[in-house]
Amino acid sequence: MNAKTTSPIADISGTADLICFSHLRWGFVFQRPQHLMSRFARHRRVFFFEEPVYESTCAQPEMRLRVCEKTGVNVATPCLPENFDRKQSVQTVARMVRQVLRDKKIEEYVAWYYTPMALDISKNLKPQAIVYDCMDELSLFQNAPPELGLNEQKLFSMCDLVFTGGVSLFEAKCRQHKHVYAFPSSVDCDHFAQARMLKEAADDQNDIPRPRLGYAGVIDERIDMKLIGELAERRPDWQIVMIGPVVKIDPATLPTNPNIHWLGMKDYASLPRYLGGWDVALMPFALNDSTRFISPTKTPEYLAAGLPVVSTPIRDVERQYGELGLVHIARNTNEFLKAVDQALTYEMGFKWRGRVDAFLRTLSWDRTWSAMNKLIEDSIEARRAAEIEKTVAKPAVMTAGQNEAAPF
Questions:
Q1: Distance from C-alpha of 29 to C-alpha of 25, rounded to nearest angstrom
Q2: What gap in Å lies between CA 102 and CA 99, rounded to an integer?
Q3: Residue 250 DSSP code
Q4: Grouped pLDDT means (10 residues each) for the chain, 408 residues
Q5: CA nearest to 233, candidates 339, 336, 307
Q6: Contact 234, 334 (CB under 8 A)
C-alpha cells in the first residue's frame, strides 16, 4: 500500500487534529461538510477521508493524499483494484487509515462521522472525542446499505456529541443520545449577496430569455421531476434553469421541454453569477422518504442572493421560513404556478427584504462552527476529567500482610 502525496500536508499545531469520514466527496457540491471542515482547518489539522474509488488501473491499493489549497483541508482518497470485494475493501482501507495516522503523526484527534458506515474502517481508533454530524436520514435514501441503521446505533453508543442538520432530524434523534444538538443549514451571506449587485449573467445562462426560474443543487430522487415538467409545460414563457450534478437517477428521465435548461454542476465561487440572473428561486422537492428530514442549505443561500423563493412543503422549510413569510410554500402544481406568478408580478418590497436580512443575520457558518467547536472542546475536557476521576478512584495496591479477601 502506498500513500501518494500530491501536495504538502497543512500543518497547524496547538490543538487536536480532526479526522472526518464522509460519504460525500470533497470535490462534490460545496455544502455542509465543506463549510464546516474549511473552518475547522483554520484552527487544527483536518483530514477528510472519502469513500474508496475502484479503478481498473489500480494494481495495488493506495491512499491518495492532497491538500485543498483554498481551505487547507487534507483530503484522503483510498484507491482500490476493481476486483476487491467488501471484506477486502474494509480491511484494506482500515489499514490505510491507520497508516495515515502514523505517517502524519496524528496522535491527539477528534473523529467526526458523516456516515455510520465508516465505523467498519475505524474500529480501532482512539480519538479524544467522537462527533456524529447527522446531516440527513441516510437510511431513507435510494440504495442505502441495509446495515446502515445498525451501524448508526453503534455510533450513537460510542459518540460524545450528535449534531443534526435540521430541527426535524433533531426531533427524530434526540431520544437516542443524551447530547444531541440541532444545527440547521447556515449560509455565507457575503458570498451570495454578491448576486444582488451582479449585472451580467454567467456565460451559459446569458442567452436564456427571461423570466428565469432557477434551482441549484444536487439533482436526484429528491427532486420532483413531474412538477418541473408541468411548470415548463403550463408556462412555456418561463425559462427553468437547473444547475447541479445528476446522481442516482437516469438522465433519460429528466423532462426535456425546450424551456428547461440543464446546465450541469457549477463551482461554488460562480454560483452568485447564476443566481444574480434569476427572477425566482425554486425548491421543487418531492415529498418522499428521502426528503422527510432535509433542511436544504439552498434556502438561506437563495434569500441571501435577494431572490423570492417558492418551495414545496418541506417540513423544516415551512416551519423555519414559510411561517415567517420569507418563503412561498406551494403544495401542488397550481399553488406553485400561483406563487411564482406573484413573485414575478409584485416587486419584493423593502419590508420583506428587511425581514429576510434580519433573519439571515442570525445565521452564519462561522457562528455554527464556533458553537460546535465549543461543544467539542467541552467534551474533550469532560473525557479528561472522567479519566482523572477513574485514576483517583482506583484502590491502592495491596501490600504484604493485608487481608486479600477484604472487599475493595
A1: 8
A2: 5
A3: -
A4: 41 74 95 97 97 91 96 97 93 97 97 96 94 90 83 95 95 94 95 89 91 97 97 98 95 96 96 96 95 94 96 96 95 96 78 91 95 96 86 58 35
A5: 336
A6: no
List the domains of the chain with CATH numbers. Answer: 2-182 (3.40.50.2000), 189-360 (3.40.50.2000)
Cα 37–Cα 67–Cα 368 angle in degrees, nearest 5: 10
For the chain, count helices (H), then strands (E): 12, 16
The reported pTM is 0.89
Cβ atoms of 40 and 18 within 8 Å: the answer is: yes
Backbone angles phi, psi at 102, to 5 degrees: -70, -50
* C-alpha–C-alpha distance, residues 282 and 216, integer Å: 8
Residue 164: in which H helix or E strand, if any?
strand 161-164
Beta-sheet pairing, 212-216 with 180-182: unpaired
CA distance 22 to 5: 20
Q: Can you say whether residue 107 is alpha, beta or left, with left for phi > 0 and alpha for psi between -120 and 50 degrees?
A: alpha
Amino acid identity, position 132:
Y
- Cα separation, 181 vs 159, in Å, equals 13
Size of the chain, expressed as the number of residues it contains = 408
DSSP assignments along 244-294, one per residue: S-B-SS-GGGS---TTEEEEE---GGGHHHHHTT-SEEEE-B--SGGGTT-
Cβ atoms of 65 and 75 closer than 8 Å? yes
Collapsing DSSP to helix, strand or coil, 131 comes out as strand
